[in-house]
Amino acid sequence: MLSRRHFLVAAGTGAAGLAAGGGAASFFERAHDPAGDATVPFYGPYQAGIATAAQDRLVFASFDLTLSTQAELRDLLRQWTAAAALMTGGEATGAVEGHPAVPPADTGEALGLSPAMLTVTFGFGPSLFARDGLGLAAGRPSALRPIGHLPGDLLDPARSDGDLCVQACANDPQVAFHAVRNLARIGRGAVVLRWTQLGFGRTSSTTSTQETARNLQGFKDGTNNLHGDDAKAMSRFVWVGDDEPQRWFRGGTYLVARRIRMLIETWDRTSLGDQEATIGRSKVTGAPLTGNREHDPVDLDLRGTRGHPVIPLDAHVRRAAPASNDGARILRRGYSFTDGIDPASGELDAGLFFICYQRDPHKQFAAIQGRLGANDALNEYIKHTGSGLFAVPPGTRRGGFIGEGLFT
Length: 408
Ligand code: HEM
Fold this sequence. Notes:
Elements: H1 4-10, H2 14-21, E1 57-65, H3 70-88, E2 119-124, H4 126-130, E3 164-170, H5 173-186, E4 191-200, H6 231-237, E5 253-262, H7 264-268, H8 272-279, H9 316-320, E6 331-332, E7 335-342, E8 347-358, H10 362-375, E9 382-392
Antiparallel strand pairs: 1-3, 1-4, 2-3, 5-8, 5-9, 6-8, 7-8
The protein binds protoporphyrin IX containing FE (HEM).
């Protein structure tokens, strides 16, 4: 059997490296890794990183195409798929040690790190299907129409949209960064980065066993989230079903990302009572104002002694609840972010990089956000500064590649 060092030398560069890496033993050293070998399977009917338990770190990247033909796009997706499968398994995308005269095929910063439950999830933006010369218009997923302006939007075009996206999540930030960096490296000449976002401290529990994490406002976030392990709810609200006219997209879903800045200094000057009335839940326990424990039901009809609703009419959990949105639900999978300070004000540029998944972004995310943007008490403390919508193709099997059905 090849030693790790020999494998690295033998694997060569570029595509040859990808091919050689497939059967070789993982090169990440596990001996010093108390987190163990945990990996999330890359292949399957759905892409990983959606229903699978949310990890602690995020690197999100949006790319624009510089390539111009379908064949080049197919090649890129084939190479990205192969690289993602290797990296999520804890392997390099190619040799780190090779010929001294050429750059290493893998950039090397994940050497010695565990797979850290890395998932790499790919999405296609509306602009991909509108590109002249690519000829993909006939394959556009039926709900992949741009989300228009929503109330309260202050979106920066430089932090919005894109032809392709990659959501890399892991329990180690360097493993997630390594994944995006190497995909960008492999894509050189075919794509350019448009914008990226780092995230930490997942803000949503996405399975029934995960404890609810806190967002940067200090509140538990994700209590009433959909759960990825609830197959019935996932089929109903997240996975695109057999009614989708684009057969290749069945088993896919839509990702909406929103960079939401929190006006943290204003929030920190707000009384506890007002903070809790804004959300509709208690800060420490996460219980709804109509209960005592986190998972007690949110009772939107309960009135207090003076006849006022206990959960205020403009509380976030009331405005976002399915009962206020024709039953619409979404799978939230966001992360906190901080990008230093806003030079104009000296205030923190930090908040929630909101990500959600659903089977129809217009009937779900946009319908809910349209109402939130108009009358959510939280609006006093947040600003939506970036936005992206992407169709996330179904998963693939060994030998296939993400988005393959679009080309057949
Ligand atoms: C910075 C912005 C936001 C913050 C700080 C925030 C925070 C919270 C918190 C603390 C909860 C209560 C716990 C829970 O059930 O998860 C919650 C619930 C929820 N939020 Fe947000 N949220 C934000 C933006 C959004 C956006 C943009 C949407 C969708 C358009 C959204 C949709 C929801 C939904 C659907 C619920 C569950 C409501 C229920 O059924 O009880 N949130 N959010």
